[in-house]
Amino acid sequence: MTSNVNIRLPVFLRRIRERRRLTQADLAQRCGVTRTYVCSIEHGRVVGPSIDLIKKLVDVMSLTPREGAALARLAAQDRVMRAVASELPERAQRFVSVCLEADRLLPDADVDTWITRLEKTVQERTDFVVHIQRDEETTMT
Asked: According to the model, what pLDDT value does residue 35 have?
């Protein structure tokens, strides 16, 4: 299992389309978009589809509520990851990706526990750095 969320939307959409025995052209025509656009989504070349298109995809492919929710979540994750890709260093992108996966996979109570632990750790490190900086300022004067 890869931690790269951007890969998941294209693979998920292609697999569902193929299971429904639809070609890209068939799906595109039924959703009112071009075949090239469907191809671009399936190859990860464009940002996740809009909510309106997701609704059309759900209807056209007769997705179950679970599949529809997964498609919507993956499209949202794709948009988030593409937005942070230009703003954050690679380590931070990986961190965001792992957080999105944890939120998807873990029960809410576990996610809340991890968030609380992370917030506490960050606060402890911040306090430590501030303490060191104060000591250095005191030593310099």
From this structure: 96
